[in-house]
């Protein structure tokens, strides 16, 4: 149930101002660097007119800009789209077609079904392919990126850049190419890509809380889009604008601060804008950020259900209650993917949402749609068809209220609403599955024992929270510290403050090879066991560190608390 403050603020959210921004962005491309900056200027002007102060940063970030492309088959030119961060091939590449996957890709141009994921492209590149053609699943070609480098690359990332050209074609042309590949037909591929460093504006609104102003909730979304990108992500930009307007008017009702940010470099930079911010303000985020909430593709046509909502385990009941209170729906949570400007996992910040509402499976089946990454499930995602018709006023109004309530409750909960017992139980489930998979090849008992010990300590900690025997400021510091330790354990594979590749990160990645070790060739088993021994040591040490922090917190409980628990 909404309390009086929540009800008053949520009821003041209206559609007119955000919808006006949607209509403006529906006529304003935000793809090239200068177009993105122009979109940021439009946003800055609207914030100023609404009386909401904003800060603008202008970092240089690394972007990849696709130009023209085609595939020449039997003297006929087939339309294609270059994939961002693939190699430039404006001079043309010629090769024999091979269907993917294949055992003979050396010096061939491979064509495979689906979108050009980093996994597909990296595998084809390792197999010696000269180029990749991705036969998209529908009548339109989706823009995208094939790089697994997260954010602007550092020196160590340079050798991981894609070294071959990659293009997408639509399904009818893809089927022609697949047929030609069976015959080993020669084709020519042309693709224009321009990569480089570009100054890009980042707009940030800080709305200060009244009791813990140094602590903040980070609400964010990307402003750059492919073409005009209404469903991905003009609607998200509009939602952030309206929430900034409302919360600025009611900042005296906020316990903690709210920071709202619009990123460039999401599509053509592989999250380069949010990554720059995560790097530039890493220590401030580590010390003060209590949660991150991403806003991508809310309020789209036919998107009425809250299915597959990205949410870290410690926040699932909290977010489910928000969605139920706001929509009367039961949320279905999923593990957050390595995508969607979630550039703060390595710092250890609890995350919920990327996309929000989506169309039901029944509606998708009725329309014959295939899965896509945004636009509420509309297959206009990442195409020229992502225009004003993809947005829905009523759905956007509803989703803005859901996001606003999530921000409000996160900012105003006296005790941060994250239950680390849920994460510990998930760890035990993951370890049990890994142990079942690897059998006698490796013993995960030390990690399981450490996770069980942590869960026991967490039960004691949350009992103390319930009894209010720990001062509130210390309790919240403990909740935050646990996130800094446990989130990287479950969502990252590299050291803190570095960035994992933009590929799937399995649960408890330090020991995830246990889940597949039994499928490896015999000659690789011993090598995998070395990795598991080292990964298990890292996991046990971190779980022990979390348990030790809890023990220290419980030991420091005062004999008598003040009447207000502070």
TrEMBL record:
Under InterPro entries, the record lists: Peptidase_M28, Peptidase_M28B
Domain Peptidase M28 stretches: 203-398
Instruction: Kindly provide the name given to this protein in its UniProt entry.
Output: M28 family peptidase
Source organism (scientific name): Bosea minatitlanensis
């Amino acid at each position: 149930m909404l309390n009086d403050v929540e009800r008053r603020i949520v009821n003041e959210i209206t559609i007119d101002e955000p919808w006006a921004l949607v209509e403006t962005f529906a006529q304003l491309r935000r793809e090239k660097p200068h177009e993105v900056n122009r979109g940021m200027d439009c946003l800055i002007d609207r914030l100023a007119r609404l009386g909401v102060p904003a800060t603008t940063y202008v970092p240089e970030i690394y972007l990849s800009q696709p130009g023209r492309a085609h595939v020449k088959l039997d003297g006929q030119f087939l339309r294609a789209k270059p994939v961002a961060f693939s190699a430039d091939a404006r001079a043309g590449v010629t090769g024999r077609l091979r269907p993917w996957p294949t055992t003979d890709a050396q010096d061939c141009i491979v064509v495979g079904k689906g979108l050009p994921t980093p996994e597909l492209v990296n595998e084809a590149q390792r197999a010696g392919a000269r180029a990749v053609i991705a036969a998209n699943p529908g009548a339109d070609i989706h823009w995208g990126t094939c790089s697994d480098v997260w954010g602007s690359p550092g020196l160590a990332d340079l050798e991981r850049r894609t070294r071959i050209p990659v293009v997408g074609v639509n399904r009818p042309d893809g089927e022609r190419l697949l047929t030609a590949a069976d015959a080993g037909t020669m084709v020519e591929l042309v693709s224009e890509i321009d990569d480089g460093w570009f100054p890009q504006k980042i707009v940030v609104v800080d709305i200060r809380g009244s009791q813990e102003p140094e602590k903040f909730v980070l609400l964010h979304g990307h402003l750059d889009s492919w073409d005009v990108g209404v469903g991905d992500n003009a609607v998200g930009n509009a939602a952030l604008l309206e929430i900034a307007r409302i919360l600025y008017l009611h900042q005296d009702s906020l316990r903690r601060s709210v920071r709202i940010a619009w990123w460039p470099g999401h599509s053509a930079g592989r999250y380069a804008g949010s990554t720059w911010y995560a790097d530039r303000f890493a220590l401030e985020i580590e010390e003060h950020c209590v949660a991150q909430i991403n806003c991508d593709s809310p309020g789209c046509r036919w998107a009425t259900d809250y299915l597959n909502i990205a949410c870290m385990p410690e926040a699932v009941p909290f977010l489910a209650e928000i969605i139920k209170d706001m929509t009367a729906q039961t949320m279905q949570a999923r593990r957050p993917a390595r995508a969607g400007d979630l550039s703060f996992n390595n710092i250890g910040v609890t995350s919920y949402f990327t996309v929000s509402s989506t169309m039901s499976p029944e509606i998708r089946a009725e329309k014959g749609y295939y899965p896509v990454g945004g636009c509420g499930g509309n297959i206009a995602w990442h195409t020229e068809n992502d225009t004003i018709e993809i947005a829905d006023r009523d759905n956007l109004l509803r989703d803005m209220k859901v996001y606003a309530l999530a921000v409000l409750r996160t900012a105003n909960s006296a005790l941060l609403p994250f239950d680390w017992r849920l994460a510990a139980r998930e760890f035990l489930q993951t370890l049990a599955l890994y142990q079942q998979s690897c059998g006698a090849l490796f013993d995960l008992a030390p990690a399981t024992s450490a996770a069980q010990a942590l869960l026991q300590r967490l039960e004691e900690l949350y009992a103390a929270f319930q009894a209010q025997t720990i001062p509130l400021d210390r309790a919240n510091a403990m909740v935050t510290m646990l996130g800094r330790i446990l989130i990287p354990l479950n969502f990252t594979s590299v050291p803190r403050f570095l960035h994992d590749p933009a590929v799937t990160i399995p649960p408890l990645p330090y020991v995830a090879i246990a889940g597949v070790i039994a499928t490896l060739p015999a000659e690789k088993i011993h090598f995998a066991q070395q990795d598991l021994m080292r990964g298990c040591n890292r996991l046990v040490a971190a779980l022990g560190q979390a348990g030790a922090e809890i023990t220290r917190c419980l030991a420091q409980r005062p004999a008598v608390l003040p009447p207000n628990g502070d």
